[in-house]
Design goal:
Shape: elongated
CATH topology of the largest domain: Cyclic Phosphodiesterase, Chain: A
CATH architecture of the largest domain: Alpha-Beta Complex
CATH superfamily of the largest domain: Cyclic phosphodiesterase
Structural class: alpha+beta
Number of domains: 2
Radius of gyration: 21 Å
Strand content: 35-45%
Number of helices: 4
């Protein structure tokens, strides 16, 4: 199983980048990425077996639970000599310190679960084409569409008779910090992160080592998790309170 860990782009930005790629194609021949496959790649893992797959899912859940959502923008169009093959990419600006931290935390979390570090770590970017002739790029206006990084995706890469296909396996919303609880059902809590991305917390599956400081979770009234108290325990207490309220109303 060949996997990628990526940040998806908004459709409006994909359309703008695709228009730019079409304008460049005649002067810069190469293997251009399909519009649907524009994303920010954080890590590639090839030949993953079932055990490694479980470790990858665990690592991404751990990282996403401690990472805040943030915003990025396209910066400069560049040609990189990536693995001796020139790649046309957009570099990124905005809260890039959070992007670097997310990138590093994913690699560290994977490493602690027995998955080797990526020896060719690249600064995350948006690849438009590869195997492009290396020459000076013209000045091109940069798209200003914001990239709201509210989740990271795990996707599978498969080779077919017609090329390469990608299938989304799982989505991991970033929910470090602020959560708005919208619904409580038994041991599941339905929330939204600060960008409105839906987060489902299963109290039976959440690792007990997830600890955050000064997290505010709202369900009717404000509730603050004390320093060093686990989020699991705090939300579990709220579940019990909600159940008791329903019993008293019934």
């Amino acid at each position: 199983m060949n996997l990628k860990i990526v940040i998806q782009l908004p459709n409006k930005l994909k359309n703008e980048i695709d228009d730019i790629a079409n304008d460049l194609y005649d002067d810069y021949k190469g293997l251009y990425v399909k519009k649907d496959n524009f994303w920010i790649t954080l890590r590639e893992i090839n030949n993953a077996d079932s055990f490694m797959f479980r470790q990858i899912k665990s690592a991404l859940y751990s990282v996403s639970s401690k990472s805040d959502p943030f915003v990025l923008y396209c910066h400069e169009l560049q040609l990189l000599n990536h693995r001796r093959k020139s790649s046309m990419v957009y570099s990124l600006r905005g809260l890039t310190s959070k992007l670097v931290s997310l990138h590093q935390n994913i690699n560290s979390s994977l490493f602690t679960r027995g998955i080797d570090r990526d020896v060719e770590v690249e600064t995350p970017n948006i690849e438009i084409a590869k195997k492009v002739s290396y020459k000076q790029l013209p000045f091109i206006s940069t798209p200003q569409v914001p990239i709201e990084v509210a989740a990271i995706d795990l996707i599978e890469q498969k080779r077919t008779l017609t090329g390469v296909e990608y299938k989304k396996i799982m989505e991991y919303p970033l929910f470090g910090g602020y959560l708005l609880v919208t619904k409580i059902e038994d041991d599941k809590v339905i929330c939204e992160n600060s960008f409105g991305k839906s987060v489902t917390l299963d109290m039976l599956e959440m690792p007990l080592d997830i600890k955050l400081k000064d997290v505010i979770v709202k369900t009717g009234a404000s509730y603050t998790i004390a320093q060093n108290e686990t989020r699991v325990r705090a939300i579990h207490e709220q579940i019990q309170k909600e159940k008791q309220k329903n019993i008293e109303k019934g």
